Structure to design on (894 residues):
């Protein structure tokens, strides 16, 4: 969704002031996550694609300008300026799927300050939400070991748009598919699904329901077995399959309640006894990385985990401590001193080397053997390249996570990756802070 | 957003099976929240309006049918049936803003089973998310006592759509306005905003920034004072106002970091000394109902709370344990027995009386002195009345919450409102459960 009013009122108010005063000098804003949530050692960058679409199409429609004139009493000169306004800036960003750590810019915008300010809300929104969810999903996928994980979250994500974004983010993070059909269509993600309890209940009994489903979908028969009694359901599923096309005709069974570890062992035993060792066991019901890790550790014979709500809203960390901060304006670095929220000044680059990451000023040379994480993604308001295939972001994510040490990937109280500031960035920050503090003290002594 | 594929794949698979088998008998599904999150004593129903829009416009576009044919191998007869499919059902629902408790249907759909199944995902999505957020917002509004609360969440909601829904839900729940301009325009909510730290930093110093803002917006000057030093910022704001139009010209100041309680007391003192007792103090920065309640209890002289992320994602309860369950099909009640997820059969009504709520079968007479919570909202797939004004939902919410006892509204470990099942509903449930269990036992003894 795009539109000039998809922003906070203060962005428009400030933009009006900047435009009126001819303050069109380039500003650089840096978007980063200050501190990671307690049980996160890394983040998976996600949401860039929606940011680029938003910036490229940013403009004010007539009804939006009418609203600003009639309800917000914007003056004619400002409205004329807004009518012409487009996003014309340069943007560098970390590509989707890349692993990043706290304090590292995910994206930097350099643009006339009014433009840079107006897109703040949407940029923060997309990157905060999608990075939180991609990170949660990566944890689930990793916890499942060799088992596959699929996205079942659509019914309880925070909105329909959110459901589409979650399916995409979780696929980047390593999920094998999604139940969300529109997301599957739009992004080319494998669509997956089984049946609901209501299907079983709509027939006179479970056996009749299983027979109908097996007849209608002989090539993808996954039967939900826990509507009345789980192991009874497994036996009914086996009987139905044997009566239909034999042992190979049952693709899978799904367990959705009870003790998934114990039930999967018992179900596996029944299936193997019936010569159905290729029938997969799908488990679902309130799962997240913590419960999946327990099942994996216990050796539960589960082939596919359907993960829903807790991943889809990133339940234990539904937001990130993200910020979009002015770091340079009209060629001078800036920073704020607000308690607990001080920023580091200047346009930046992050260099990743074997010793960890270094956040540096953008014009510093790369340390030997390191590579820059931020790449140019937009110039003069236009993308520099088309959207990359989702599989490329997905491969990047898998490769990045594979390089992380266990102390960073562990689920509980991990360490975060090593991040240092370059000596020049530290010096710039210290000098500017000293200058600002001395000004504050001068003002205090006048008060 | 609407579209036939905004659903889970299994809904489409099951629908295909129902259509193929001519299973067009009416099904009733009941949507309710099983258990409330730990610190919730009540819920504020929200999201109905989006559900109605979704159901009214539900259909398959050509590109969607193409996807089902090419990627999901749906057969021609099913595709023809889906092409013609519209939602033609009857819906009753609890109006937005109404207080409800666990187990009480928020919405019931009666429709041919394929239609009722296909809209499940979107109905659950809208009602779960928006009810969670409206409930969180109601808690924040109540915690603020006489102070006003405004929505600052847009930058960190779970998507752009989510931001629009949060602004609307929080307004229904008692917020006074939103920073989200598009939501304000679309729903007629008051738009509110101040300035960002970047505005202060874009000028040579704080005083120059305050002067510019005061000149540009003389009728709505709220100055952000904590960029460098909060009390220094308050003094600068006062000086700027006195130099401009005198004490009345400063609408407000905003505190966004540090000890908001102590700083608000000191800021109030400085403002009052300068004869600026009408200047309002706005506080923001990581607030939720718990921190607002502490500030209120401490008597912090804060006039307006800007509440962002924690409300916008309902941080401590980002989802609800919602369910959409088949309760009747082809005129017989149904239920499932799944461990921990058993349902109560039959189409229902909730009657609210002075002794609490009674969940009854829909055709039972109302207990004396009670009123039904579910009202008809859709007949034959069409709304029975136009969308109600947002202020009516808002008034309903305020009135409902006012009737709740303190043990239900308290923020920590509240009791939930009294909800009983009618004797007839209990009897129907017990009889059906006994019948299903005896069938399960018969099957077990055969196994």
């Amino acid at each position: 969704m795009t539109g000039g009013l998809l922003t906070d009122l203060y962005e428009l108010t400030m933009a009006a002031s900047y435009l009126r005063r001819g303050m069109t000098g380039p500003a650089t804003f840096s978007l980063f996550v200050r501190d990671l949530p307690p049980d996160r050692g890394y983040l998976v960058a996600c949401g860039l694609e929606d940011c680029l679409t938003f910036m490229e199409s940013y403009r004010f429609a007539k009804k939006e300008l009418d609203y600003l004139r009639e309800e917000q009493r914007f003056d004619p000169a400002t409205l004329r300026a807004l009518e012409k306004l487009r996003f014309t800036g340069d943007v560098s960003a970390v590509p989707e799927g890349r692993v990043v750590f706290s304090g590292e810019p995910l994206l930097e915008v350099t643009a006339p300050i009014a433009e840079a300010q107006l897109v703040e809300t949407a940029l923060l929104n997309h990157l905060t939400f999608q990075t939180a969810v991609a990170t949660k999903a990566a944890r689930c996928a990793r916890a499942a070991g060799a088992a596959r994980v699929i996205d079942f979250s659509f019914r309880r994500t925070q909105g329909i748009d959110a459901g589409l974004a979650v399916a995409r983010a979780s696929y980047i993070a390593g999920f094998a598919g999604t139940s969300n059909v529109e997301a599957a269509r739009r992004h080319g993600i494998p669509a997956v699904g089984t049946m609901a309890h209501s299907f079983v209940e709509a027939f006179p009994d479970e056996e009749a329901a299983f027979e109908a489903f097996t007849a209608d979908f002989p090539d993808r028969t996954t039967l939900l077995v826990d509507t009345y009694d789980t192991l009874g359901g497994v036996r009914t599923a086996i009987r139905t399959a044997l009566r239909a096309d034999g042992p190979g005709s049952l693709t899978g069974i799904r367990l959705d309640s009870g003790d998934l570890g114990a039930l999967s062992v018992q179900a596996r035993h029944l299936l193997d006894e019936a010569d159905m060792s290729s029938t997969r066991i799908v488990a679902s019901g309130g799962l997240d990385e913590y419960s999946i890790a327990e099942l994996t550790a216990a050796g539960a014979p589960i082939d596919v985990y359907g993960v829903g709500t807790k991943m889809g809203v990133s339940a234990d960390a539904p937001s990130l401590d993200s910020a979009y901060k002015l770091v340079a304006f009209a060629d001078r670095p800036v920073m704020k001193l607000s308690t607990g929220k001080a920023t580091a000044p200047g346009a930046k680059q992050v260099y990743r080397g074997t010793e960890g990451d270094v956040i540096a000023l953008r014009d510093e040379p790369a340390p030997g053997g390191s590579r820059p994480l931020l790449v140019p993604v937009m110039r003069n308001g236009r993308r520099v390249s088309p959207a990359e295939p989702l599989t490329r972001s997905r491969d990047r994510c898998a490769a990045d996570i594979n390089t992380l040490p266990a102390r960073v990937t562990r689920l509980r109280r991990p360490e975060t990756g090593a991040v240092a500031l370059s000596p020049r960035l530290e010096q710039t920050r210290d000098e500017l802070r000293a200058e600002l503090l001395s000004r504050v003290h001068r003002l205090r002594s006048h008060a």
